[in-house]
Specification:
By secondary structure, the chain is an alpha/beta fold. Helix content is 35%, strand content 24%. A hairpin with a 2-residue loop joins strand 15 and strand 16. The longest helix is centred in the middle third of the chain and has 25 residues. It binds 3-hydroxy-3-methylglutaryl-coenzyme A. 3-hydroxy-3-methylglutaryl-coenzyme A binds next to helix 2, helix 6, helix 7 and strand 12.
Length: 433
């Protein structure tokens, strides 16, 4: 039986329905990180601005060997192992990224080769800033739900290295990492409410990265406004469909009927701002009287219950662009997987430029066991804290810089991971670690 009520008719009028969603999830992060209090002191900023004002504690720092491909391949290998999926059951591999390594050859094609995946499958990248991974996830889900997958699964990877200029306002919101998801029928982790989503897009210059630039350009405060406008429109689109499909009731605030909401997390405070905006939509749309005088307190309580549990990993890794929402999902399951079993959650994906989507799904009964297999505590514990001088040294390295010592533990450099080792005859080369 479907958990979510997100039933999808199989093709040719068959009466069977296919529950579709995320079956397993693997995470890869760089082996080194910078403590944001160290960064604040180096910039002459009150540390509370980063830790409380932005809600960030640590940020992952990628070395040249830890590029988007090596992070993506390491996360994908873990996800496939956790799902115990025969690679021949895959029919699609999509990588969502905005920090690819080549203008033509997709990251997905490198991953396809590194994991030795079968030839008979679709392999491509999707790009729209941080939304690229969600574009891949939606394509995979709809491919399976339509019946076109004919029983096969998809591998969707979100992988990025987020870079702003040294000493810019965006600097404390950097990060790097990859989240890979096996997308299947009868998923163990999260069954999506297929066809129940709200989208919002606009042509805005809130964040961009011109060709040839390594660092993003950003109109920071404007980008926050663009995100908040998008979440309001997307959430309203979702709720109209969710009420019509009777996934939530219309006579009570729909956002409060979700057990949790994961937002795209460029920095943790953004999720709080987004949640306040979503609640304001419910308040403005309410048909029953709403006690406005207690709203601030209710919003704070609801943030603690519905959103904060998803922020643990994000606060320690930073913005991983396409993977940020799914790092939030991993963090939520890690913190509250057992109690959320069979409960509906909301998810909001935002990509600057901009496009966005609010969607929902139901946590699977085996989510707890699947997230435990991702070894998230071990990944964090294996990391090395670096000094501000070492951070500056890494940031000053050019893309073709000689690579340092092979990493000893953690991240994509850990055993079974992958590492970029240089360019030979104009071809990027990778090694297993
Ligand atoms: P800023 O201007 O340096 O910071 O940069 P601020 O002055 O706005 O302060 C930030 C917060 O800290 C404020 O809280 C301050 O009050 C507080 P708020 O008013 O927002 O609630 N604060 C303090 N709190 C405690 N103690 C103190 C203290 N001092 C100040 N002593 C900004 C902030 C976000 C603009 C900057 O970090 C930035 O440009 N970041 C990059 C852009 C970004 O992350 N945008 C988010 C939305 S767009 C998005 O999510 C897409 C993206 O992921 C890209 C993609 O799609 O690919 C970025």
């Amino acid at each position: 039986m479907s958990l979510a009520g997100g039933w999808v008719r199989a093709p040719r009028g068959a009466q069977t329905a296919i529950p579709v969603g995320i079956d397993a999830l693997g995470v890869a992060i760089p082996r080194r990180y910078l403590d944001l209090e160290d960064l604040a002191r180096a910039r002459g900023v009150e540390p509370a601005k980063y830790t409380h004002g932005l809600g960030a504690r640590e940020m992952a720092v990628a070395e040249p060997g830890e590029d988007t491909v090596s992070l993506a391949a390491a996360a994908a290998r873990r996800a496939l192992e956790i799902a115990r999926l025969d690679p021949h059951a895959l029919g699609m591999l999509v990588v969502g990224t905005e920090t690819g390594v080549d203008h033509a050859k997709p990251v997905a094609s490198f991953v396809h080769g590194l994991l030795d995946l079968p030839r008979a499958m679709r392999v491509y990248d999707t790009q729209h800033a941080c939304y690229g991974g969600t574009a891949g996830l939606m394509s995979a889900v709809e491919w399976i739900a339509s019946g076109a997958a004919a029983g096969r699964s998809a591998l969707v990877i979100c992988a990025d290295v987020a870079r702003y200029g040294v000493a810019t306002a965006g600097e404390p919101t950097q990060g790097a990492g990859a989240v890979a998801m096996v997308v299947s029928a009868h998923p163990a982790l999260l069954e999506l409410d297929v066809g129940v989503a709200g989208a919002a897009s606009a042509h805005v210059h809130d964040f961009w990265r011109p060709l040839g630039h390594r660092e993003a350009q950003v109109d920071g405060h404007y980008s926050v406004e663009c995100y908040l406008d998008a979440v309001a429109t997307a959430y309203r689109g979702w709720k109209a469909r969710a009420i019509a499909r009777e996934l939530v009731r219309g006579d009570a605030p729909p956002s409060e009927q979700l057990a949790a909401i994961c937002y795209h997390v460029p920095f943790c405070k953004m999720a709080k701002k987004a949640h306040v905006r979503v609640r304001r939509c419910d308040l403005e749309d309410a048909t029953a009287p709403w006690d406005v005088s207690t709203e601030e307190l209710r919003a704070a309580t609801s943030f603690q219950l519905q959103v904060e549990p998803s922020l643990g990993l994000c606060a320690r890794i930073g913005n991983v662009y396409t993977g940020s929402l799914y790092l939030g999902l991993a963090g939520l399951l890690h913190a509250r997987g057992a109690e959320l079993s069979r409960r509906r959650i909301g998810l909001f994906s935002y990509g600057s430029g901009c496009t966005s989507e609010f969607f929902s799904g139901v946590i699977g009964p085996r989510a707890n066991e699947r997230i435990a297999a991702a070894g998230l505590d071990e990944l964090l514990a294996a990391r090395e804290r670096i000094s501000i001088d070492e951070y500056h040294r890494i940031m000053a390295l050019g893309p073709g810089a000689p690579l340092g010592e092979p990493p000893s533990s953690g991240g994509p450099g850990s055993p079974g991971g992958f590492r970029f080792v240089g360019v030979e005859a104009n071809r990027r080369r990778y090694e297993r670690t």
